[in-house]
Design goal:
Length: 283
DNA sequence: GTCGTATCTTCGAAGAAGTT
DNA sequence: AACTTCTTCGAAGATACGAC
């Protein structure tokens, strides 16, 4: 049902647990996660974009502090939805945190929102502004749940009740997401759209409303994430090999994309790589 | 839902800077 | 010198989006 990971190193020790919810939620949620005692040696952390949506509950008293690309600090009350990002943002990690979160599948947040997901593109929004008092009630319920398993169970049961639309995807989006999984198949988007039977314009509209990103941007992010996965925990990297294997035309174009998504050169990123490939300590 | 077009991405080339 | 890593540029094609 779930697995437990204990991470520790010289500088800090933390507990990470994850839980995969049951169907039908599992079709929309990748996993729930719980962090305890996260207090890394750096005070700020670059969060790299993966196009997915994350919902975070802070279980400590403090507010959640994030920074945008202009380094402007933004405070959120105890819960925040990080919309589908194609840009990095920065998390304040100066205070030890305990938090619970939901990592949604692409387009998975859609049934739980009343507006199109693309309105959250590159945006982080306090959960209260989207769910009103229901966000506060859920936060209280999670705090009152004693064990981590209880918290996961509370979250699972409450989330089912919070869906404002049926747990169904548009068939065109389902089909496209499935097609986009196979990186080895480097067909142009127009081929995939042609198979769907909708006009290009209509398909992009539907995809954007459900996933929050344009199809092209989604594919570029998948390719970028494939690079991060490939070099995760390796000691030596041949950047040209990685670029070609992940579908880039050459190393130059790979570097350009890498910088656009992360603000770092591949070698910079590699030298700073931490426990999780989407989080990079910066100060 | 289509059409036309502006914008973006990819492809391909050339070369600078740093390292071995 | 050879090699690796990274930058810049222009052309062509693909994609996104406003108008209808």
């Amino acid at each position: 049902m779930d697995y437990k990971v204990h991470c520790s190193c010289r500088a800090y020790a933390m507990l990470l647990r994850t839980y995969i919810p049951r169907a039908p939620l599992s079709g929309f949620v990748d996993f729930f996660w719980y962090f305890e005692g996260y207090h890394p040696p750096h005070t700020r952390e670059l969060t790299l974009p993966d196009g997915s949506v994350e919902l975070v509950f802070n279980l400590n008293e403090d507010k959640i502090k994030l920074f945008d690309r202009e380094n402007k600090g933004l405070l959120y009350d105890r819960s925040v939805i990080c919309g589908p990002h194609s840009e990095y943002f920065i998390i304040d990690t100066s205070v030890e945190t305990t938090s619970l979160g939901i990592h949604f599948r692409p387009g998975g947040i859609n049934p739980f929102l009343k507006m199109p997901v693309n309105e959250l593109h590159n945006n982080n929004v306090s959960l209260d502004t989207l769910w009103g008092t229901r966000a506060h009630d859920l936060h209280e319920k999670i705090l009152l749940s004693k064990t981590v398993d209880d918290k996961f169970r509370t979250l699972e049961e409450s989330l089912m009740k919070l869906a404002s639309r049926p747990l169904i995807r548009h068939p065109a989006v389902s089909f496209a997401l499935n097609e986009f999984q196979s990186l080895s198949d480097k067909r142009p988007l127009s081929d995939v759209i042609g198979q769907i039977g909708l006009s290009q314009r209509r398909f992009i509209q539907i995809f954007k409303e459900e996933v929050g990103l344009t199809p092209k941007l989604f594919c570029r992010l998948r390719r970028f994430q494939e690079v991060l996965n490939r070099i995760d925990h390796t000691k030596i990297v041949n950047w040209l090999d990685v670029a070609i294997a992940c579908g880039y035309y050459d190393q130059m174009h790979f570097i350009k994309d890498f910088q656009a998504f992360s603000s770092l050169n591949p070698t910079d990123y590699f030298s700073r790589q931490g426990k999780h490939h989407n989080h990079v300590g910066i100060y």
